[in-house]
Amino acid sequence: MLMNRIETVVINNPVRRALQRWYEAPVLERLGGPLPVGARVLEIGCGPGYGARLLLEHFGAAQVDAVDLDPAMAARARRRLAPYRGRVRVGVADATDLRPLIPDDGVYDAVFDFGIIHHIPTWRNALDEVARVLKPGGTFYFEEVTKHALDRASYRLLFDHPAHDRFTDTDFLAELAAHGLAARGHRTIVFGDFVLGAAERTP
Ligand SMILES: C[S@@+](CC[C@H](N)C(=O)[O-])C[C@H]1O[C@@H](n2cnc3c(N)ncnc32)[C@H](O)[C@@H]1O
Fold first, then answer.
1. How far is the CA of 113 from the centre of ligand 1 (A)?
2. Is the pLDDT of residue 137 over 90?
3. What is the pLDDT of residues 30-80, one digit of tens each?
4. Residue ranges of the Methyltransferase domain (predicted)?
């Protein structure tokens, strides 16, 4: 499900970028460890492309593929990432079916999810794809918004999200395990509203 106008403003905002740079990226790196040298990385739901920039600059990824369902977001990301041409590719794709862009299995050292899976009605299908495209031993880094947040009146009033079959932190971690993604570490914050963590693709 695409973002509404209010969420688009919230995401395309210096405060969001600061949070991503100074909180989310360091916590994810602490929980999942650094990327291997020469890492090939996928970001699902890249939005305006700031996360992909952090993957190149902060995490030191060698190559980043970034995808978003919304062509307007992919266009923004392409503009932001133009200085990194050669190390980054941006595409339009649905995280629940990446095969049109990424037909091969086991090709990425890491997959990043900066707050996108809670936007997907059939969110388990996105985890199928994360598990499919990760190399054995590769890492899934995630930052997600839980049912606790999405059930709040403020969230329901301001933003558009799928209403049914949302997940708590525990639900999300259990689903990762069911997809062969073994949690390395996680942190639940803001009264259970957000969960950040990293999980390893088991062979
Ligand atoms: C809350 S925004 C997060 C954007 C960016 N990752 C960030 O942290 O700033 C969610 C993004 O997921 C995208 N999205 C929603 N459903 C998607 C899907 N099924 N596949 C890929 N991207 C999706 C939206 O278009 C939006 O750009």
1. 9
2. yes
3. 999 999 999 999 999 999 999 999 999 999 999 999 999 999 999 999 999
4. 41-138
Q: Which amino acid is at 182?
A: A
Confirm or reject: Cβ of 49 under 6 Å from ligand 1.
no
| Ligand 1, atom nearest to 7 Cα | 1
Ligand 1 contact via 25 beta carbon (within 6 Å) = no
For the chain, what are the domain ranges?
5-201
4/134 Cα distance (integer angstroms): 30
Q: Is 196 in the pocket of ligand 1 (CB under 6 A)?
A: no
Residues in the chain: 203
DSSP 142: E
pLDDT(96) > 90: yes
**Strand pairing report for 181-189 and 194-201:** antiparallel
Instruction: Using most ligand atoms within 8 A of CB, pick from 16, 69, 92, 159 the residue to mutate for ligand 1.
Output: 69
Q: Is the shortest distance between the CB of 53 and ligand 1 below 6 Å? A: no
- At residue 81 the predicted structure's pLDDT band, cuts being 50, 70 and 90, is very high
User: And the tokens for 23?
Assistant: 């909180």
CB 167 within 8 A of CB 101: no
